[in-house]
Amino acid sequence: MEALMNLMHGFGVLADPMNIVYMFVGITLGVLIGVLPGLGGANGVAILLPLTFSMSPTSAIIMLSCIYWGALFGGAITSVLFNIPGEPWSVATTFDGHPMAQQGRAGEALTAAFTSSFFGAFLAVILITFLAPVIAGFALRFGPAEFFAVQLLTFCSFVGMGKESPFKVLTAMMLGFALAAVGLDTVTGQLRMTFGTIELLRGFDFLIAVIGLFGIGEILLTMEEGLAFKGKSARINPAVVLHTWKQLPKYWITALRGSIVGCWMGITPGGATPASFMSYGLAKRFSRNGARFGTGEIEGVVAPETAAHAAGTSALLPMLTLGIPGSPTAAVLLGGLLIWGLQPGPLLFVEQKEFVWGLIASMYLGNVVGLIVVLTTVPLFASILRIPFSIIAPIIIVICAVGAYTVHNAFMDIAVMLVFGVLGYVFKKLSYPLAPLVLALVLGDMAESSFRQAMLLSQGDLAIFWSNPLVGSIVTLALAMLFWPVISLAIARLRARQGGKAAVSLK
Amino acid sequence: MSHQTNQRDRDGDAVATHRTMEIAVALLFALVAAVVMYDSNRVGNGWASDGPEAGYFPFYVGLIMFVSSCVILASNLLSRTPNTTAFVERGQFILVLKVLIPTVAFVGLIWVLGIYLAAAVFIAFFMYWLGRYPITRILPVAVLIPLALFVMFEIWFLVPLPKGPVETMLGY
């Protein structure tokens, strides 16, 4: 009940008409970012972050989170019309979305995609509304050891759940931590890894890294493929929308399952991409039309979209309550909070009530606004994709350079961005994961300080991480995640041996 | 005809194989890790009278990075089935350089000309060189985009961007 009261209060915060304007601006910019090749949610938000420095934190986060919703919506447009997933989590949407467009049912596919995105996000926001205050209340009792344990769990689950080689995940993650450590050590005041240069005093800002890795890196990859966009045209009119809406209730089980998968994967940092694939796979397995998946089934669009959006949205839950972002874009939003002097974590719910509930209320409204904006402007955004790459690429590079410069007003950062761009290109090609690198860069300082505080409390004794059942079970779970590749290999070997024995005894 | 085929064959040549790149990148990471450990050792990676020293945490970060990059290195060196597919083909590599080199030049130009003029030159060059557009299509894009950025950043949001001699001449 208290959550509802707070939510009402949150809607009151939104009543400022300027906030609604920012919401529309944010959604439109977000869709634009989602549609443009090479600009994704994470670096889009990173580039536009400096624009919000002059706003109040509430207005700023409303605009930024709306950019995030917009980018989530925008990914579907490119997937369906151009068979180019603008974001990794829209890959599964291309499986059935693009065949539908080829059959001339683009409008239907897009309406289904947007509506299911809306549905998934909406369920996730409801979850955040009721669960976030509970988790935050619980986390208020956390000490440094518990915080470090939760952070450890976040990082270890990348190793256990990632599809890349665990050693590559570890290397990428440690690079993030190492870059985060460069500069002034806030505890002792000593300079670390600056090697006497003034430029390195600032350290490496993760926003620059994000813009380089995801922006420039993506442009280089796109260029390598010699990309030429050939898209299907989209006609969306009220008749198509209404016709599709009439069909959608049939797939309520798929949508609900997708949302649950998405919420789960969003809160545990599995992320939107595996969530969308998992939901697609489950739908294919359990649907009556499963065999026809991949040929243009509307259900094959509903499943990944609900999951991706539920995951993208619920990734904000651990960010708000524990200060641990569930996705790279959530990490950039967290960086925004830090810049405005707000410390994400359980105290936010006590000290910045107005801000938190304004943000949660804006998630409801932002998704409604998003649905309206995308349904009405698809042809406009689709036409942007028809602009040839040789025009759009330099514009995106210029925008990335502007974004990198504005973070610290430093020329050097543009050059650093370029280096990260090349790194991003090589990383992608050698399948080193980017997300753990970014998260380690963002959370590095926080993780280090909670680790050091915990060590101070225990005078260097690691036993503090098993000093009570709560921290003990989180750390144990984290270690299980870390060694999951080894554990699962051992289980598989054991099974194979048992299976072999069974086969022998059958003979 | 044969000339064309030759050209295509050469385009398909590998500039580097996956294995070579894997080894090179792993070596690079091992080096970075060594630097991290060295510097952490310099500032102290142990326990001072008032608690953990500045290098306490980064040292272990470097150590984990060193060990994991060595594993990647070893698995690529010792693998009996190395991945010898092309990391990047010659044709692709040239395309990548066609973006990368002008971008590096653009970053250099920002220093001299300021970001607005540099952006105009960069967009114009890119459209002319890769897109082969006529000047009538290049000019509006190359002028309007920096102008839009100027209005948005300098005037609406009051965020100053690097400016050069031309802007100074115009009084900014």
Topology:
The complex is a heterodimer of chains A (507) and B (172).
Chain A: H1 2-14, H2 17-35, H3 41-48, H4 57-82, H5 91-102, H6 106-139, H7 144-161, H8 166-181, E1 183-184, E2 191-192, H9 206-224, H10 238-247, H11 252-267, H12 272-286, H13 299-314, H14 316-322, H15 328-339, H16 348-351, H17 353-384, H18 389-408, H19 412-429, H20 435-458, H21 469-482, H22 484-506
Antiparallel strand pairs in A: 1-2
Helix pairs in contact in A: 1-17, 2-4, 2-17, 3-4, 3-9, 3-15, 3-18, 4-5, 4-6, 4-15, 4-17, 5-6, 5-13, 6-10, 6-11, 6-13, 6-14, 6-17, 7-8, 7-20, 7-21, 8-20, 9-18, 9-19, 11-12, 11-13, 12-13, 15-20, 18-19
Chain B: H1 2-12, E1 14-17, H2 18-43, E2 47-48, E3 51-52, H3 56-78, E4 86-89, H4 90-113, H5 115-129, H6 135-156, H7 165-169
Antiparallel strand pairs in B: 1-4, 2-3
Question: How would you characterize the overall build of this protein?
Answer:
The complex is a heterodimer of chains A (507) and B (172). Helix content of chain A is 74%, strand content 1%. Chain A is mainly alpha-helical. In chain A, helix 3 (41-48) runs parallel beside helix 15 (328-339), helix 6 (106-139) packs parallel to helix 13 (299-314) and helix 15 crosses helix 20. Chain A is globular, with a radius of gyration of 23 Å. Chain A starts with a helix and ends with a helix. Chain B is mainly alpha-helical. Classes of the chains: A mainly alpha (507), B mainly alpha (172).
The proportion of residues forming helix of chain B, as a percent range, comes to: over 70%
Mean pLDDT of chain B comes to 86
How many E strands of chain B? 4
Strand order of the largest sheet of chain A: 1-2
Cα-atom Rg of chain A, whole angstroms?
23 Å
Average predicted confidence as pLDDT of chain A? 84
The computed structural class of chain B is mainly alpha
What is the oligomer described by this structure?
heterodimer
Shape of chain B: flat
What's the quick description here?
By secondary structure, chain A is mostly helical. In chain A, 74% of the residues lie in helices and 1% in strands. Chain A has helices at residues 2-14, 17-35, 41-48, 57-82, 91-102, 106-139, 144-161, 166-181, 206-224, 238-247, 252-267, 272-286, 299-314, 316-322, 328-339, 348-351, 353-384, 389-408, 412-429, 435-458, 469-482, 484-506, and strands at 183-184, 191-192.
